[in-house]
């Protein structure tokens, strides 16, 4: 099955990935470089098509295929990710992922890695990069809408990198928000409504499976920064039109946002810049304005994260 002379691929499961990537912040330098390279066109050496998403109509799910090559990292991967809107079995996570890592010199498969930990951590790390650049000065209140996997990874890196006077959480089912507040290492205020959670917040993270708006421009403090992480289908929303139109809009990928993001497509909001352009300094950050970073997730982020884990694993760290 494997070419003569090439070793069989290794399997790096979730526990091992977690061990090598115990803090999402370990990825920050590689992700910043990858975002800048992605937004530099062919000169940046990133090859990454907009992902293919196959709907699994009968079961309310989707399969995403996310290939990328980053020349700067010499990393060649594809992630396969499933996400299910209506979970039939709540013991199964809504998102499950696997990353295949290839040897770019000859195409041999080197490793199969659990992709769920990578997805959680690289997404939160990219939101942290956006926040560092776009948040208002003296941000004191963090608000997280949603209490699933991404809520935990965002909480971890945000409280590692920034100092808050108050962290608030809201979830559609309050029990999950209470569980979140009781599980994390630090005080968290559980809010009974999204509006209560958002009012006066300086930084807002939306990490829900909502398909209609849960965050309204009317509630948002002028100058706040929003990381909009959910709603990755062209007919799904987390943010209302008012917020989308009255904020300065940053995206990870223009092509992806105009293909996949209901918040962008249906609101008709104008994209101001890709995050990579701000990292490079070719577009300003405008932290004094109300800013939205619409994150859809990019394959190159998985490529650099998988390479990081594989290199650490190979070095026996
Ligand atoms: N931008 C990116 O790179 C990535 C984005 N995502 C997206 O982030 C979001 C969160 O992902 P996970 O935390 O892994 O999911 P999860 O299933 O672990 O958590 C989702 C949360 O949303 C809540 N929820 C479900 N339906 C809702 C609704 N209709 N209205 C309001 N809340 C609702 C659930 O109670 C749960 O707390 C999803 O939309 C996911 O697709 C996930 C991975 C990467
Ligand atoms: O980037 C990812 O990985 C995902 N993005 C949107 C939803 C599915 C997973």
UniProtKB/TrEMBL annotation:
Its main location: cytoplasm. Keywords: Cytoplasm, NAD, NADP, Oxidoreductase. It is found in: Cytoplasm. The keyword Iron-sulfur does not apply. Its EC number is 1.5.1.1, 1.5.1.25. It catalyses: L-proline + NADP(+) = 1-pyrroline-2-carboxylate + NADPH + H(+); Delta(2)-thiazoline-2-carboxylate + NADPH + 2 H(+) = L-thiazolidine-2-carboxylate + NADP(+); (S)-cystathionine ketimine + NADH + 2 H(+) = (3R,5S)-2,3,5,6,7-pentahydro-1,4-thiazepine-3,5-dicarboxylate + NAD(+); L-proline + NAD(+) = 1-pyrroline-2-carboxylate + NADH + H(+). One of its GO terms (molecular function) is thiomorpholine-carboxylate dehydrogenase activity. Homodimer. Binds the thyroid hormone triiodothyronine (T3); T3 binding inhibits enzymatic activity. This is Ketimine reductase mu-crystallin. It comes from Melopsittacus undulatus (Budgerigar).
